[in-house]
Amino acid sequence: MQIIGIIAEYNPFHHGHRFQIETIRKQYPSAAVVAVMSGSFTQRGTPSVLDKWTRARHAVEGGADLVLELPFVFACRSAQDFARGGISLLSRLGIVSHLAFGMEAADLAPLVNAAARIDAEPVQRCLRKHMDEGHSYAGALTRTLTADAILSEEMLRAPNNILTIEYLRALRLLAPQIVPIGIRRRTAQHRDTHLHVGITSASSIRRVLAASSPPWTELSESLMPSVLDDLRAAHARGLPQENTLLDLLRYLLLVTDSSALTEVYGIAEGIENRLIQSRTAQDYSDFLRNAATKRYPQSRIARLIIHLLLHLTKAQAEDFDTSGAANIHPLAFNTRGRELLRMMKQQGQLPIITRTAEFLSSAERGQPQRTLSPLQRMLAFDTRATELRLLTCPTPMNGRRRTDFIMSPQFLL
Protein backbone atom coordinates (compact mmCIF):
# COMPACT_ATOMS: atom_id res chain seq x y z
CA MET A 1 0.00 0.00 0.00
CA GLN A 2 1.23 3.48 -0.84
CA ILE A 3 1.37 5.76 2.18
CA ILE A 4 1.77 9.41 1.31
CA GLY A 5 3.06 11.98 3.77
CA ILE A 6 2.29 15.69 3.89
CA ILE A 7 4.05 18.31 6.02
CA ALA A 8 1.65 21.13 6.78
CA GLU A 9 0.35 23.78 9.17
CA TYR A 10 -3.38 23.94 8.32
CA ASN A 11 -3.65 27.37 9.90
CA PRO A 12 -6.54 27.09 9.22
CA PHE A 13 -7.49 24.14 7.01
CA HIS A 14 -9.12 25.41 3.78
CA HIS A 15 -10.24 24.25 0.33
CA GLY A 16 -6.70 24.48 -1.05
CA HIS A 17 -5.56 21.88 1.48
CA ARG A 18 -8.55 19.73 0.62
CA PHE A 19 -7.72 20.08 -3.09
CA GLN A 20 -4.20 18.82 -2.43
CA ILE A 21 -5.46 15.71 -0.66
CA GLU A 22 -8.07 15.08 -3.37
CA THR A 23 -5.36 15.41 -6.03
CA ILE A 24 -3.25 12.83 -4.20
CA ARG A 25 -6.18 10.42 -4.07
CA LYS A 26 -6.88 10.85 -7.79
CA GLN A 27 -3.27 9.96 -8.61
CA TYR A 28 -3.04 7.19 -6.00
CA PRO A 29 -6.59 5.89 -5.41
CA SER A 30 -5.64 3.24 -2.86
CA ALA A 31 -3.14 5.36 -0.91
CA ALA A 32 -3.38 6.37 2.74
CA VAL A 33 -2.52 9.95 3.72
CA VAL A 34 -0.62 10.89 6.89
CA ALA A 35 -0.06 14.57 7.66
CA VAL A 36 2.68 15.90 9.93
CA MET A 37 1.36 19.21 11.25
CA SER A 38 2.91 22.00 13.29
CA GLY A 39 1.35 22.30 16.73
CA SER A 40 0.75 25.44 18.76
CA PHE A 41 3.14 27.77 16.91
CA THR A 42 3.80 28.04 13.20
CA GLN A 43 6.98 28.12 11.19
CA ARG A 44 6.77 31.93 11.06
CA GLY A 45 6.63 32.20 14.86
CA THR A 46 2.93 32.98 15.29
CA PRO A 47 0.41 31.24 17.57
CA SER A 48 -1.92 29.05 15.53
CA VAL A 49 -5.42 30.44 14.99
CA LEU A 50 -7.03 27.27 16.36
CA ASP A 51 -5.53 24.70 18.70
CA LYS A 52 -3.73 21.71 17.21
CA TRP A 53 -6.41 19.14 18.04
CA THR A 54 -9.12 21.17 16.31
CA ARG A 55 -6.95 21.74 13.23
CA ALA A 56 -6.06 18.04 13.10
CA ARG A 57 -9.74 17.09 13.24
CA HIS A 58 -10.43 19.44 10.32
CA ALA A 59 -7.65 17.77 8.32
CA VAL A 60 -9.14 14.30 8.86
CA GLU A 61 -12.59 15.62 7.95
CA GLY A 62 -10.93 17.05 4.85
CA GLY A 63 -9.46 13.75 3.69
CA ALA A 64 -6.35 12.90 5.71
CA ASP A 65 -6.30 9.55 7.49
CA LEU A 66 -3.92 10.46 10.30
CA VAL A 67 -2.47 13.72 11.63
CA LEU A 68 0.71 13.71 13.73
CA GLU A 69 2.28 16.64 15.53
CA LEU A 70 5.54 18.04 14.21
CA PRO A 71 7.56 18.75 17.39
CA PHE A 72 7.81 22.42 18.32
CA VAL A 73 11.61 22.33 18.17
CA PHE A 74 11.32 21.79 14.38
CA ALA A 75 7.99 23.48 13.65
CA CYS A 76 8.99 26.96 14.82
CA ARG A 77 12.25 27.13 12.88
CA SER A 78 13.63 28.17 9.49
CA ALA A 79 12.36 26.54 6.29
CA GLN A 80 15.42 24.29 6.24
CA ASP A 81 14.92 23.07 9.82
CA PHE A 82 11.15 22.81 9.40
CA ALA A 83 11.65 20.57 6.37
CA ARG A 84 14.32 18.41 7.99
CA GLY A 85 12.24 17.96 11.13
CA GLY A 86 9.22 16.86 9.13
CA ILE A 87 11.22 14.47 6.95
CA SER A 88 12.98 13.12 10.04
CA LEU A 89 9.62 12.19 11.53
CA LEU A 90 8.11 10.77 8.34
CA SER A 91 11.19 8.64 7.67
CA ARG A 92 11.07 7.13 11.17
CA LEU A 93 7.44 6.10 10.87
CA GLY A 94 8.73 3.15 8.86
CA ILE A 95 5.82 3.07 6.43
CA VAL A 96 5.81 6.27 4.31
CA SER A 97 6.48 5.74 0.59
CA HIS A 98 5.86 9.25 -0.84
CA LEU A 99 5.97 12.90 0.18
CA ALA A 100 3.46 15.30 -1.41
CA PHE A 101 3.83 19.09 -1.32
CA GLY A 102 2.55 22.19 -3.06
CA MET A 103 4.77 24.25 -5.34
CA GLU A 104 4.47 27.14 -7.77
CA ALA A 105 6.82 25.58 -10.33
CA ALA A 106 5.28 23.88 -13.36
CA ASP A 107 7.92 21.13 -13.29
CA LEU A 108 9.66 19.46 -10.35
CA ALA A 109 12.88 18.71 -12.25
CA PRO A 110 14.56 22.15 -11.87
CA LEU A 111 13.94 22.09 -8.13
CA VAL A 112 15.35 18.56 -7.88
CA ASN A 113 18.44 19.79 -9.71
CA ALA A 114 18.79 22.76 -7.35
CA ALA A 115 18.43 20.54 -4.29
CA ALA A 116 21.11 18.19 -5.64
CA ARG A 117 23.58 21.03 -6.24
CA ILE A 118 22.95 23.26 -3.26
CA ASP A 119 25.05 21.25 -0.80
CA ALA A 120 28.12 21.24 -3.08
CA GLU A 121 30.99 23.17 -1.50
CA PRO A 122 31.21 25.93 -4.17
CA VAL A 123 27.49 26.69 -3.75
CA GLN A 124 27.75 26.59 0.03
CA ARG A 125 30.76 28.90 -0.08
CA CYS A 126 28.83 31.41 -2.17
CA LEU A 127 25.86 31.11 0.19
CA ARG A 128 28.03 31.85 3.23
CA LYS A 129 29.56 34.84 1.42
CA HIS A 130 26.16 36.44 0.83
CA MET A 131 25.10 35.77 4.42
CA ASP A 132 28.33 37.34 5.69
CA GLU A 133 27.35 40.40 3.65
CA GLY A 134 24.23 40.71 5.79
CA HIS A 135 21.58 38.97 3.70
CA SER A 136 18.96 36.69 5.21
CA TYR A 137 19.21 32.98 4.40
CA ALA A 138 16.41 33.26 1.83
CA GLY A 139 18.02 36.29 0.23
CA ALA A 140 21.45 34.68 0.18
CA LEU A 141 20.00 31.49 -1.31
CA THR A 142 18.28 33.44 -4.07
CA ARG A 143 21.47 35.29 -4.96
CA THR A 144 23.51 32.10 -4.93
CA LEU A 145 21.21 30.02 -7.10
CA THR A 146 20.49 32.79 -9.61
CA ALA A 147 24.18 33.72 -9.93
CA ASP A 148 24.99 30.16 -10.98
CA ALA A 149 21.90 30.07 -13.21
CA ILE A 150 20.62 27.09 -11.24
CA LEU A 151 17.16 28.66 -10.96
CA SER A 152 15.55 31.91 -12.06
CA GLU A 153 14.84 34.70 -9.60
CA GLU A 154 11.15 34.49 -10.49
CA MET A 155 11.02 30.83 -9.50
CA LEU A 156 12.79 31.55 -6.20
CA ARG A 157 10.47 34.43 -5.43
CA ALA A 158 7.73 31.85 -4.81
CA PRO A 159 7.99 30.70 -1.16
CA ASN A 160 6.64 27.20 -1.79
CA ASN A 161 9.41 26.59 -4.32
CA ILE A 162 12.02 27.43 -1.69
CA LEU A 163 10.33 25.10 0.80
CA THR A 164 10.18 22.41 -1.89
CA ILE A 165 13.94 22.68 -2.36
CA GLU A 166 14.39 22.20 1.38
CA TYR A 167 12.09 19.14 1.34
CA LEU A 168 14.12 17.66 -1.52
CA ARG A 169 17.41 18.38 0.28
CA ALA A 170 16.09 16.70 3.41
CA LEU A 171 14.89 13.67 1.44
CA ARG A 172 18.34 13.25 -0.11
CA LEU A 173 19.94 13.41 3.31
CA LEU A 174 17.48 11.54 5.52
CA ALA A 175 15.05 9.51 3.44
CA PRO A 176 16.11 8.85 -0.17
CA GLN A 177 13.63 5.98 -0.31
CA ILE A 178 10.66 8.39 -0.09
CA VAL A 179 9.44 9.55 -3.51
CA PRO A 180 8.58 13.27 -3.90
CA ILE A 181 5.27 14.35 -5.47
CA GLY A 182 5.00 18.00 -6.46
CA ILE A 183 1.45 19.37 -6.77
CA ARG A 184 1.30 22.71 -8.52
CA ARG A 185 -0.66 25.54 -6.90
CA ARG A 186 -3.05 26.79 -9.58
CA THR A 187 -5.08 29.48 -7.78
CA ALA A 188 -4.34 31.60 -4.71
CA GLN A 189 -0.67 31.80 -3.92
CA HIS A 190 0.95 31.33 -0.54
CA ARG A 191 0.77 34.58 1.54
CA ASP A 192 -1.70 36.17 -0.89
CA THR A 193 -3.67 38.37 1.52
CA HIS A 194 -6.69 38.90 -0.77
CA LEU A 195 -9.63 36.68 0.14
CA HIS A 196 -10.77 34.64 -2.87
CA VAL A 197 -13.95 32.65 -3.36
CA GLY A 198 -13.21 28.91 -3.29
CA ILE A 199 -9.52 28.25 -2.88
CA THR A 200 -7.81 31.07 -1.02
CA SER A 201 -4.64 31.33 1.06
CA ALA A 202 -4.47 30.80 4.82
CA SER A 203 -2.90 34.27 5.03
CA SER A 204 -5.99 35.86 3.51
CA ILE A 205 -8.25 34.01 5.95
CA ARG A 206 -6.17 35.08 8.96
CA ARG A 207 -6.16 38.69 7.73
CA VAL A 208 -9.96 38.99 7.63
CA LEU A 209 -10.29 37.15 10.96
CA ALA A 210 -8.45 40.06 12.57
CA ALA A 211 -11.49 42.27 11.93
CA SER A 212 -14.10 42.78 14.62
CA SER A 213 -16.75 41.54 12.17
CA PRO A 214 -15.18 39.12 9.66
CA PRO A 215 -16.98 38.50 6.34
CA TRP A 216 -18.44 35.16 7.38
CA THR A 217 -20.53 34.80 4.23
CA GLU A 218 -17.45 35.15 2.02
CA LEU A 219 -15.47 32.83 4.29
CA SER A 220 -18.17 30.18 3.97
CA GLU A 221 -17.18 29.89 0.29
CA SER A 222 -13.56 29.10 1.22
CA LEU A 223 -13.91 26.81 4.24
CA MET A 224 -15.60 23.56 5.19
CA PRO A 225 -18.65 24.14 7.46
CA SER A 226 -16.91 22.61 10.49
CA VAL A 227 -13.90 24.93 10.07
CA LEU A 228 -16.17 27.95 9.68
CA ASP A 229 -18.14 27.01 12.81
CA ASP A 230 -14.99 26.55 14.89
CA LEU A 231 -13.50 29.82 13.65
CA ARG A 232 -16.71 31.70 14.48
CA ALA A 233 -16.73 30.23 17.99
CA ALA A 234 -13.03 31.00 18.49
CA HIS A 235 -13.49 34.55 17.19
CA ALA A 236 -16.33 35.12 19.67
CA ARG A 237 -14.10 33.96 22.54
CA GLY A 238 -11.11 35.88 21.22
CA LEU A 239 -8.37 34.63 18.90
CA PRO A 240 -4.71 34.51 20.03
CA GLN A 241 -3.37 38.02 20.64
CA GLU A 242 0.26 38.56 19.61
CA ASN A 243 0.45 41.68 21.80
CA THR A 244 0.46 39.31 24.78
CA LEU A 245 3.75 37.91 23.47
CA LEU A 246 5.18 41.44 23.54
CA ASP A 247 4.14 41.91 27.18
CA LEU A 248 5.78 38.61 28.11
CA LEU A 249 8.91 39.52 26.15
CA ARG A 250 9.19 42.92 27.84
CA TYR A 251 9.17 41.23 31.24
CA LEU A 252 11.68 38.61 30.10
CA LEU A 253 14.09 41.24 28.83
CA LEU A 254 13.65 43.17 32.08
CA VAL A 255 14.72 40.30 34.34
CA THR A 256 17.23 38.41 32.15
CA ASP A 257 20.89 39.37 31.93
CA SER A 258 22.62 39.56 28.54
CA SER A 259 24.76 36.46 29.10
CA ALA A 260 21.64 34.32 29.55
CA LEU A 261 20.07 35.85 26.45
CA THR A 262 23.04 34.85 24.29
CA GLU A 263 22.47 31.18 25.18
CA VAL A 264 19.10 31.21 23.38
CA TYR A 265 18.90 29.69 19.93
CA GLY A 266 18.98 32.37 17.24
CA ILE A 267 20.63 35.07 19.36
CA ALA A 268 23.78 36.18 17.54
CA GLU A 269 25.57 39.23 16.23
CA GLY A 270 24.10 41.47 18.93
CA ILE A 271 20.49 41.02 17.82
CA GLU A 272 19.52 40.95 21.50
CA ASN A 273 20.41 44.63 21.69
CA ARG A 274 17.92 45.45 18.94
CA LEU A 275 15.27 43.52 20.86
CA ILE A 276 16.00 45.51 24.01
CA GLN A 277 15.96 48.79 22.10
CA SER A 278 12.67 47.91 20.42
CA ARG A 279 10.76 46.84 23.54
CA THR A 280 9.06 50.25 23.88
CA ALA A 281 7.18 49.68 20.61
CA GLN A 282 3.46 50.46 20.66
CA ASP A 283 2.42 46.95 19.68
CA TYR A 284 3.74 43.63 18.44
CA SER A 285 3.70 44.59 14.77
CA ASP A 286 5.69 47.75 15.50
CA PHE A 287 8.15 45.71 17.54
CA LEU A 288 8.79 43.32 14.66
CA ARG A 289 9.28 46.19 12.22
CA ASN A 290 11.65 48.04 14.57
CA ALA A 291 13.75 44.98 15.40
CA ALA A 292 13.99 43.55 11.87
CA THR A 293 17.04 44.03 9.65
CA LYS A 294 18.07 42.77 6.21
CA ARG A 295 19.75 39.83 7.93
CA TYR A 296 16.97 39.32 10.47
CA PRO A 297 13.57 39.63 8.70
CA GLN A 298 10.39 39.90 10.73
CA SER A 299 9.63 36.16 10.51
CA ARG A 300 13.02 35.36 12.03
CA ILE A 301 12.48 37.91 14.81
CA ALA A 302 9.05 36.40 15.51
CA ARG A 303 10.56 32.92 15.86
CA LEU A 304 13.31 34.30 18.05
CA ILE A 305 10.73 35.77 20.43
CA ILE A 306 9.12 32.35 20.89
CA HIS A 307 12.53 30.74 21.41
CA LEU A 308 13.27 33.35 24.08
CA LEU A 309 9.94 32.86 25.85
CA LEU A 310 10.33 29.07 25.88
CA HIS A 311 14.11 29.27 26.45
CA LEU A 312 15.19 27.03 23.59
CA THR A 313 18.97 27.18 23.85
CA LYS A 314 21.56 26.76 21.11
CA ALA A 315 22.86 23.59 22.75
CA GLN A 316 19.36 22.08 22.92
CA ALA A 317 18.59 22.92 19.28
CA GLU A 318 21.85 21.32 18.19
CA ASP A 319 21.02 18.17 20.15
CA PHE A 320 17.52 17.99 18.68
CA ASP A 321 18.85 18.49 15.15
CA THR A 322 21.37 15.69 15.67
CA SER A 323 18.90 13.22 17.20
CA GLY A 324 15.88 14.04 15.00
CA ALA A 325 12.24 13.35 15.87
CA ALA A 326 11.89 11.34 19.08
CA ASN A 327 8.22 10.36 19.19
CA ILE A 328 4.98 9.89 17.27
CA HIS A 329 2.19 12.06 18.69
CA PRO A 330 -1.15 11.41 16.94
CA LEU A 331 -3.65 14.28 17.15
CA ALA A 332 -6.54 12.88 15.08
CA PHE A 333 -7.23 9.85 12.89
CA ASN A 334 -9.94 7.79 11.24
CA THR A 335 -10.31 4.01 10.96
CA ARG A 336 -7.61 3.78 8.33
CA GLY A 337 -5.40 6.06 10.38
CA ARG A 338 -5.76 3.72 13.33
CA GLU A 339 -4.46 0.92 11.12
CA LEU A 340 -1.51 3.13 10.13
CA LEU A 341 -0.66 3.57 13.82
CA ARG A 342 -0.65 -0.21 14.23
CA MET A 343 1.75 -0.48 11.30
CA MET A 344 4.01 2.22 12.79
CA LYS A 345 4.09 0.39 16.09
CA GLN A 346 5.37 -2.71 14.27
CA GLN A 347 7.66 -1.10 11.66
CA GLY A 348 8.55 2.34 13.02
CA GLN A 349 11.45 3.44 15.17
CA LEU A 350 9.62 5.70 17.63
CA PRO A 351 7.23 5.34 20.58
CA ILE A 352 3.62 6.41 20.00
CA ILE A 353 2.32 8.91 22.54
CA THR A 354 -1.43 8.82 23.14
CA ARG A 355 -1.21 9.97 26.77
CA THR A 356 1.48 12.54 27.47
CA ALA A 357 1.55 11.80 31.20
CA GLU A 358 2.80 8.27 30.50
CA PHE A 359 6.01 9.78 29.12
CA LEU A 360 6.26 13.14 30.90
CA SER A 361 4.47 14.50 33.96
CA SER A 362 4.13 18.19 34.77
CA ALA A 363 6.41 17.60 37.78
CA GLU A 364 9.09 15.96 35.62
CA ARG A 365 8.88 18.83 33.16
CA GLY A 366 10.06 21.20 35.89
CA GLN A 367 13.20 19.19 36.59
CA PRO A 368 16.62 20.13 35.15
CA GLN A 369 16.87 19.29 31.45
CA ARG A 370 19.90 17.06 32.03
CA THR A 371 17.76 14.68 34.10
CA LEU A 372 15.26 14.14 31.26
CA SER A 373 15.54 11.76 28.34
CA PRO A 374 15.77 13.19 24.78
CA LEU A 375 12.13 12.26 24.23
CA GLN A 376 11.06 14.02 27.44
CA ARG A 377 13.04 17.15 26.55
CA MET A 378 11.38 17.35 23.13
CA LEU A 379 7.96 16.66 24.59
CA ALA A 380 8.48 19.31 27.28
CA PHE A 381 8.80 22.00 24.59
CA ASP A 382 5.60 20.78 22.91
CA THR A 383 3.66 21.05 26.18
CA ARG A 384 5.09 24.47 27.03
CA ALA A 385 4.32 25.76 23.54
CA THR A 386 0.70 24.66 23.98
CA GLU A 387 0.46 26.57 27.26
CA LEU A 388 2.22 29.64 25.87
CA ARG A 389 -0.35 29.79 23.09
CA LEU A 390 -3.11 29.53 25.70
CA LEU A 391 -1.68 32.61 27.42
CA THR A 392 -2.34 34.57 24.22
CA CYS A 393 -6.03 33.55 24.16
CA PRO A 394 -8.43 35.85 26.05
CA THR A 395 -10.82 33.03 27.02
CA PRO A 396 -10.10 29.26 27.11
CA MET A 397 -12.60 27.00 25.33
CA ASN A 398 -15.61 26.51 27.65
CA GLY A 399 -13.38 27.46 30.56
CA ARG A 400 -11.25 24.37 29.92
CA ARG A 401 -7.56 24.72 29.14
CA ARG A 402 -6.79 22.25 26.36
CA THR A 403 -3.30 21.17 27.37
CA ASP A 404 -1.28 18.12 26.36
CA PHE A 405 -1.77 16.61 29.80
CA ILE A 406 -5.56 16.60 29.34
CA MET A 407 -6.21 16.02 25.65
CA SER A 408 -6.15 12.66 23.87
CA PRO A 409 -6.02 11.91 20.14
CA GLN A 410 -9.40 12.23 18.41
CA PHE A 411 -10.85 9.22 16.62
CA LEU A 412 -13.24 10.10 13.80
CA LEU A 413 -15.47 7.40 12.30
Describe the structure.
The protein has a seven-stranded mixed sheet, with helices on both faces. Strand 2, helix 2 and strand 3 form a beta-alpha-beta unit. Helix 5 crosses helix 9 and helix 13 crosses helix 17. The protein contains 21 helices and seven strands. By secondary structure, the chain is of the alpha/beta class. The model has no long low-confidence stretch (mean pLDDT 92). The two termini are 21 Å apart.
Task: Give the structure's gist in a few sentences.
The chain is an alpha/beta fold and 413 residues long. It has 21 helices and 7 strands. A 7-stranded mixed β-sheet has the order 5-4-1-2-3-6-7, sandwiched between helices.
Q: Uncertain segments of ≥5 residues (pLDDT<50)?
A: none
Number of helices: 21
* Helical percentage: 40-55%
End-to-end C-alpha gap: 21 Å
Strand content of the residues, in percent? 5-15%
Q: What's the Cα radius of gyration?
A: 21 Å
How would you summarize the topology of this molecule?
Blueprint: E1 3-8, H1 15-27, E2 32-38, H2 52-61, E3 66-70, H3 72-75, H4 79-92, E4 98-103, H5 109-117, H6 121-132, H7 137-147, H8 153-156, H9 159-174, E5 179-184, H10 202-209, H11 216-219, H12 225-237, H13 242-255, H14 258-261, H15 271-278, H16 284-291, H17 298-310, H18 314-323, E6 330-333, H19 335-347, H20 362-365, H21 374-391, E7 410-411
Parallel strand pairs: 1-2, 1-4, 2-3, 4-5, 6-7
Antiparallel strand pairs: 3-6
Relevant terms:
alpha/beta, globular, 413 residues, 7 strands
